[in-house]
Each structure stands twice: as C-alpha cells, then as structure tokens.
Design goal:
By secondary structure, the protein is α+β, with helices and mostly antiparallel strands. The chain has helices at about 85-95, 150-155, 165-190, and strands at about 65, 95-100, 100-105, 110-120, 125-130, 135-145, 195-200, 205, 210-215, 220-225. Strands 1, 2, 3, 4, 5, 6, 7, 8, 9 and 10 form a ten-stranded antiparallel sheet that branches. Strand 3 and strand 4 (about 110-120) form a beta hairpin.
Length: about 230
C-alpha cells in the first residue's frame, strides 16, 4: 500500500450540511431517497446546529443513507496542527494540484477556510479550517473504478495528528470498503437503481472521526476533528 507520509479529515452529510467545499464542482446536494446521483456525496463540514453524537451511538457497520449519523461541527484536530506538511506530501505523492486557501461562507454566516486539490483523473481533496489556521476536516474523494483510488484514500488516513492509530485506521478502511461495496450491490439488486448511496460504520481514533461514503461510482472519505462526544 502506498503511503503519503507516515504523517498524515471536510464536513459531512453524514448528514453534514455546510456549503463549503468538497469537490471541485462545489455542488454536492444530499441525495433524495428516490434520486441519488454521483454528486450526492455529502459536503465538507457538519452543521453547528447538530449535536455531537457519542461514539457508542454510532453505527459500527455500513448503513443506507437514511440511517447515516449526524455530527456536530468539526473542530480543531490538534492545537497548532495546520496539516501543511501532510498536504504538501500528499499532493506530491499523488500529483494533486493544490489551490490557494479560500474563505467560504457557511449557512450560519461564519466563514471557514478551505484548501482544495485535484488530479485530472477525478481524485480530489478538501481540507477545512474551523479557525482559519488549524485543520478541522479532510475530505478525500476518488472514483470506484480508479485503480489506485483505494491507496489514495488509505494515504489520507495517515494524517500526522497526535493520537491517531494508523494501523487501526488502515484496517478499518479495508473493512469499510468491503461493507459499503457489499451493501451498495445489495441495494442495487433490490431496487434496480445504480445511484444508490450508502455509508460505512464510523471509526474514531484519538481526536478524529472517519467515515466512508459510497455514492454510485464515487468514494468519499471524511475525517473530522472533534465531531464525537
């Protein structure tokens, strides 16, 4: 498995509902039960109006989108952690072009800083900063048919935040992919709708929470800081 760095998560519809950033198109509406699309993957930061769930209440295995957990507003992953070195290494290893930081207005009127990156094959990342300085979220996205897409997602779990168990994160991601793929195929067989949308069980380690989304032919890995009580 390819590593971005032994060092080295953006909102969630999970449902995560802020307007900021997540794909280069910036358009990622939450899917309706009857009309899920590739753009249906959730957005980058959770709504501040939501109450952070307790780890014991979160699903341990893949669920359909109507049962996905809601999270509180993502918070700083670690005091003083900007993720600058991690993002630089990740972009270099995966040939992602990082844009300059931009401030995007949230539904509550507050502004949050984002750094977006992309590669021509559809790989994207979006890092969010709740206080404009310290990283609070990371969204990594790839297509399901990208040959090295899973390795890219695995590299995103290796962010260098103190307290994150990278070994457990790697094992969780493999299980999350198996379970989301299995549930997706089961739902497609049942409904005949290839635009199904499912999410994995939730993984918590140290100060971060991780969850994998599959919407049709896209995987979206979200890593949030301070989103679980």
């Amino acid at each position: 498995m390819r590593a971005a760095l032994r060092v080295p998560a953006v909102l969630m519809t999970v449902v995560i509902g802020t307007a900021g950033a997540v794909s280069c198109s910036r358009s990622t509406p939450e899917p309706a039960a009857s009309d899920r699309t590739t753009a249906a993957a959730p957005r980058a930061e959770p709504s501040a109006s939501r109450t952070a769930p307790r780890a014991a209440e979160l699903p341990k295995h893949a669920v359909t989108s109507d049962k996905q957990p809601s999270f509180g507003e993502a918070d700083t992953m670690d005091a003083g952690y900007s993720g600058k070195d991690f993002l630089a290494a990740l972009s270099k290893d995966w040939k992602l072009k990082l844009d300059k930081p931009v401030d995007e207005e949230m539904p509550d009127g507050k502004k949050r800083t984002y750094i977006h990156g992309q590669r021509g094959n559809g790989m994207t990342l979006s890092a969010g900063y709740a206080d404009h300085r310290n990283m609070s979220s990371l969204l990594c996205r790839t297509s399901t048919n990208q040959s090295d897409g899973f390795d890219f997602l695995a590299a995103c779990t290796r962010l260098d935040v103190s307290g994150v168990d990278h070994g457990k994160a790697s094992s969780w991601l493999e299980q999350a992919k198996r379970e989301t793929d299995s549930l997706y195929e089961k739902r497609v067989a049942e409904t005949g709708n290839k635009k199904e949308y499912v999410v994995s069980g939730v993984f918590t380690s140290g100060p971060v929470t991780m969850i994998l989304h599959r919407a049709y032919d896209k995987y979206s890995l979200r890593i949030l800081g301070g989103a679980v009580a």
